[in-house]
Design a protein that fits this description.
Blueprint: E1 8-13, H1 14-24, H2 38-53, E2 62-66, H3 74-78, H4 96-106, E3 110-112, H5 119-132, E4 136-140, E5 154-158, E6 163-165, H6 167-174, H7 181-188, H8 203-213, H9 216-221, H10 229-237, H11 239-249, H12 271-281, H13 284-294, H14 303-308, E7 325-327, H15 331-344, E8 346-353, E9 363-371, E10 374-379, H16 403-415, E11 420-423, H17 426-434, E12 443-445, H18 446-454, H19 462-470, H20 478-481, H21 495-516, H22 519-522, H23 526-533, H24 536-546, E13 548-550, H25 552-577, H26 586-596, H27 614-620, H28 626-649, E14 657-658, E15 661-663, E16 673-675, H29 687-690, E17 696-697, E18 702-709, H30 712-720, H31 724-731, H32 736-745, H33 754-769, H34 773-780, H35 784-797, H36 799-815, E19 817-819, E20 825-827, H37 836-868, E21 874-879, E22 883-889, H38 893-905, E23 920-925, H39 928-931
Parallel strand pairs: 1-2, 1-4, 2-3, 4-5, 7-10, 8-11, 11-12
Antiparallel strand pairs: 5-6, 8-9, 9-10, 13-14, 13-17, 15-16, 18-22, 18-23, 19-20, 21-22
Helix pairs in contact: 1-2, 2-4, 4-12, 7-8, 7-11, 12-13, 15-16, 17-24, 18-21, 19-21, 25-28, 27-28, 30-37, 32-33, 32-35, 33-34, 34-35, 35-36, 37-38
This protein binds a DNA duplex through helix 8, helix 26, helix 28, strand 16 and helix 33.
Function: In addition to polymerase activity, this DNA polymerase exhibits 3'-5' and 5'-3' exonuclease activity.
Catalytic activity: DNA(n) + a 2'-deoxyribonucleoside 5'-triphosphate = DNA(n+1) + diphosphate
Protein name: DNA polymerase I
Length: about 950
DNA sequence: AAATTCACG
DNA sequence: GACGTACGTGAATTTC
């Protein structure tokens, strides 16, 4: 068929596909020889998806992928600086360029590039030919340089956003129609391609001028008429540069091609060619997908490749089948499973209980799996519903082995050092077993494997991991126990219903383990997992089980005092407002402040509600008495509801202590988080809040001690960024903020004021977070320009910090992650996004190695701590990021401080020798307020 | 369930 | 040239 009316040509911007694929994916290598193939893999995925998405009635009749030819183009002859500030392609991308051409041909799609021309010119020429032949053309690209081609049957399609760009879309972007796009571009220039344009004129101004004068030529001819003197001068003086810019952005629609549109006709796929290529690249998942679409059998990979193929396991092909899950009802079946476990050497285990609180949880059943697709459930505590009779709630369901018999049979296996027990979130299950005096060891944990491998990429809950890596959606727990008020506990579920859910969890855990464990080496995080994750599990479990004693009476008295004060404040507030309203409602408060009292400081937020945060109320406090009272009320309300009231409900009836739960995967940086209750945010900054710490007490005859790292993150910054001045200051034990102030502001140390020191402190902390002038200005409540000056001077004085930031950003952009000193990888998938998301990712990437290294250090200390204090009457109870809290008999306070301090100060060694000393401060007392 | 606010390092 | 603007968390409360 010759190309003509009714025909539809698709032109794919190949280079855009390659770069998008490269940056969107983590570095991926071919397993058999380590060849980098991340971009090729992503490129093939995009082509496959393109083909699947374009099979319908509007399918193209002709298609080609157009590439840039390597080397210079004719534009470099026009202007030697054209695209001169483009960084060279990353080393691991270069070998992939020819492979993407091979991939295109393997998909049986025409593949074109021409020496001395850019892909955009070939696309332009073909689009014009298609238009001349009365056919349609769709350009699959979002490159704004191609927008000049739109119109008259030519459209663009942004494949990522699946958004078509027509004439209207171009006008939206450039403010002019496609025929004037080059004029606007010539004026505005392009920093990415290094097109100079007219200095000081951007797209907005350019569109305004072009629309007023009709065309670039008319504008330049009549430049004398322009009113703004600066703009007039620019256009007159830079005429040559602007005309050159137009030549650079103008695409060549009239290239001589050695092929015609007819050569681009869509061809049927050649399964052998395509699958052969994908097999050569060892892209397992894509082979299956492509074979499925083609309706042919997927070829098997060569054996070594199969064994190692990334993100694919033997388990992937084994279906999930609830019929293969076994209900263990008798002793013979249980013994059979135990024998199978000993034969295999490892087993995936999951426990079902009647509570999410491990301190009180009782076993409902145990699941085991040693082979993907096969699992069993051993119910031991399922009870009949309470509906039958008064005692029904305690009566056991049928066909369950006695709990003690099951535990006696399993205990030797669970404690056998030769048998590896695999869990998803091992800490929970180990604590449950600990309730039955069973010490499970050794243990692997798929949640922690995922965290070591994928921190920052996604969460590590089992449901999410299963969907992502096994392509399988587990049975939602809601279908068994319901949700909200009518929720029941798992031990009340009928065993027949519980079986498929529970056994599946062990099955999934085993499959995830088979997938993740070999990846530790390939991603080089084995040491992270083995030294920072795995050994921490028993340490945290022990701390949680000890808990910390909290005095209910103290909290209760404080609650009452807060309630009284709040009532008084509330009356005053209503008085001042002239009406009653809910002080706790930001919405109602906003209306009182800004509508009724007409205080300055209008709306904010996307919901249209007034913002009434502490910053705003503090500013308003100078205008009116009410905001200050609200702030006082809020502080009390927070203290009462979150602390003095809520903490009481967390006191364990049996132990009289509060048992928090640490989430080891809680923060992407390696920090822990603490929940139910969160004991990492107990008030300390305000005098009234700090008194809540008086309720955290030591037992009679014991004391609480607290040891915290002094300015650990700044020390790490000094080491990582290699700032001599900072390192020396730390080595000499000087006041680091005063030192910074004197360096940055030029004030001698003996003339230092607290205000200047405070500013330096804010800058020191800001730097760790990637602060902007705007942010520092807001924090210090100083003019923005002044804040920017501070920051500039800071970087001038400590240029190494700027270098660290630039290097970190560059590393994140090429690798997709950043690293701590101990090799922990924190992924930064958004670093190559554009807009504000990239800014957030950039600041997070700067902060992560610092915060993460600090987290690694205290983890190392915690892991060594039990051994260091084993002969002392002391227990480690809490961790608050840079602080550890112990309970110790009065007689051993000094010895414990000495032992713990030594472990903490030496925690980096022998792996790392820091250039700065780590200093640990210590306190002691009958309660946490005194100890801190 | 989302948004807002505020407690901590 | 515009846009947003300091990192990492968890919990309580109000609003939709």
């Amino acid at each position: 068929m010759g190309f003509g009316k009714g025909c539809h040509l698709h032109l794919i911007d190949g280079s855009a596909f390659i770069f998008r694929a490269y940056h969107a994916l983590p570095p991926l290598t071919r397993k058999s020889d380590g060849l980098p193939i991340g971009a090729v893999s992503g490129f093939c995925n995009m082509l496959q998806r393109y083909i699947e998405d374009n099979a319908g009635p509007d399918a193209p009749t002709h298609v080609a992928v157009i590439f840039d030819h390597s080397g210079k183009s004719f534009r470099n002859d026009l202007y030697d600086q054209y695209k001169a500030n483009r960084p060279p392609a990353p080393e691991d991308l270069k070998p992939q360029f020819p492979l993407t051409r091979d991939a295109t041909r393997a998909f049986n799609i025409a593949c074109k590039e021409i020496e001395g021309f850019e892909a955009d010119d070939i696309i332009a020429t073909l689009a014009c030919q298609a238009r001349a032949a009365s056919g349609r053309c769709t350009i699959i690209s979002s490159d704004k340089d191609l927008m000049q081609l739109v119109g008259d049957g030519v459209e663009m399609l942004d494949a990522m956003k699946n958004k078509r760009i027509d004439r209207e879309g171009v006008i939206e972007k450039f403010g002019v129609g496609p025929e004037r796009v080059v004029d606007v571009q010539a004026l505005a220039g392009d920093s990415v391609d290094n097109v100079p344009g007219a200095p000081g004129i951007g797209i907005k101004t350019a569109a305004l001028l072009i629309n007023e004068y009709g065309s670039l030529e008319d504008l330049l001819d009549r430049a004398e008429e322009i009113k703004q003197p600066k703009r007039r001068q620019t256009l007159i003086e830079k005429r040559d540069q602007i005309e050159l810019s137009k030549q650079l952005v103008q695409l060549d629609c009239d290239m001589a091609l050695d092929f015609t549109l007819d050569d681009l006709e869509v061809q049927d796929a050649d399964p052998e060619k395509l699958l052969g290529f994908l097999a050569e690249m060892e892209l397992r998942t894509l082979i299956k997908r492509a074979a499925d679409k083609l309706g042919v059998e997927a070829p098997s990979l060569p054996e070594p490749a199969l064994a190692a193929a990334e993100d694919a396991s033997a388990a992937e092909d084994i279906p999930f089948d609830a019929a293969k899950y076994e209900w263990v009802k008798d002793r013979a079946a249980l013994d059979r499973w135990i024998a199978a476990i000993y034969k295999r050497g490892y087993v995936a285990v999951d426990t079902e209980t009647n509570s999410l609180d491990e301190m009180v949880a009782e076993l409902a059943g145990i699941c085991l799996s040693v082979e993907p697709g096969e699992a069993c459930y051993i119910p031991v505590g399922h009870k009949k519903g309470a509906s039958d009779d008064l005692f029904g709630g305690e009566e056991l369901q049928e066909d369950q082995l006695p709990l003690t018999e099951v535990l006696d049979a399993l205990q030797p296996m669970l404690e056998d050092p030769a048998i590896l027990k695999i869990f998803q979130n091992a800490k929970y299950d180990c604590k449950v077993f600990a309730n039955y005096k069973i010490a499970v060891t050794p243990v692997d944990d798929t949640m922690l494997l995922s965290y070591a491998l994928h921190a920052g990429e996604h969460n590590h809950g089992m449901d999410a991991l299963s969907e992502r890596y096994l392509n399988h959606q587990p049975i939602p727990i809601k279908t068994l126990i319901g949700s909200g008020k009518s929720m029941i506990t798992f031990d009340k579920v009928a065993i027949a219903d519980a079986l498929p859910y529970a056994a599946e969890d062990a099955d999934i855990t085993l499959r995830l383990w088979q997938l993740f464990k070999p990846k530790l080496h390939r991603r080089q995080v084995s040491t992270v997992y083995e030294t920072l994750e795995r050994p921490l599990v028993p340490v945290l479990a022990q701390m949680e089980r000890y808990g910390i004693k909290v005095d209910r009476d103290t909290l209760s008295r404080m609650s009452n005092a807060f309630a009284q004060k709040m009532a008084g404040l509330e009356a005053e507030i209503h008085e001042l407002a002239g009406q009653e309203f809910n002080v706790g409602s930001p919405k109602q408060l906003g209306e009182i402040l800004f509508d009724k009292l007409e205080l300055p400081g209008g709306k904010k937020g996307k919901t249209g509600a007034y913002a009434t945060g502490v910053d705003i109320l503090e500013d308003l406090a100078t205008e009116h008495a009410l905001p200050g009272l609200v702030l006082d009320w809020r502080q009390l309300s927070k203290l009462k509801s979150t602390y003095t009231d809520a903490l009481q409900t967390h006191i364990n009836a049996e132990t009289g202590r509060v048992h928090t739960s640490y989430v080891q995967t809680g923060a992407n940086t390696g920090r822990l988080s603490s929940t139910d209750p969160n004991l990492q945010n107990i008030p300390v900054r305000s005098e009234e809040g700090r008194r809540i710490r008086e309720a955290f007490v030591a037992e009679e005859g014991k004391a609480l001690i607290s040891l915290d790292y002094s300015q650990v993150e700044l020390r790490i910054l000094a080491h990582i960024a290699d700032i001599d001045a900072l390192k020396e200051a730390f080595r000499d034990g000087r006041d680091i903020h005063a030192m910074t102030a004197s360096e940055v502001f030029g004030v001698p140390l003996d003339e230092m004021t607290s205000e200047i020191r405070r500013r330096a402190k804010a800058i020191n902390f800001g730097v760790i977070y990637g602060v902007s002038g705007f942010g520092l200005a807001r924090n210090l409540r100083i003019p923005r320009g002044e804040a920017q000056d501070f920051i500039n001077r800071y970087f001038e004085r400590f240029p190494g910090i700027r270098t660290y930031m630039d290097d970190t950003k560059e590393f994140a952009k090429t690798h997709g992650y950043v690293q701590t000193l101990f090799g922990r990888k924190i992924h930064t998938p958004e670093i190559n996004a554009k807009g504000p998301r990239a800014s957030f990712a950039y600041r997070a990437a700067i902060n992560a190695p610092i915060q993460g290294t600090a987290a690694d250090i205290i983890r190392r200390a915690m892991i060594r701590m039990p051994e260091a204090i084993k002969d002392l009457p002391a227990k480690m109870l809490l961790q608050v990021h840079d602080e550890l809290i112990f309970e110790v008999e009065d007689s051993a306070v000094d010895a414990t401080i000495a032992a713990a301090r030594e472990v903490m100060q030496g925690a980096t060694e022998p792996a790392i020798k820091l250039d700065v000393p780590l200093i640990v401060d210590a306190g002691r007392g009958a309660n946490w307020a005194e100890a801190h």
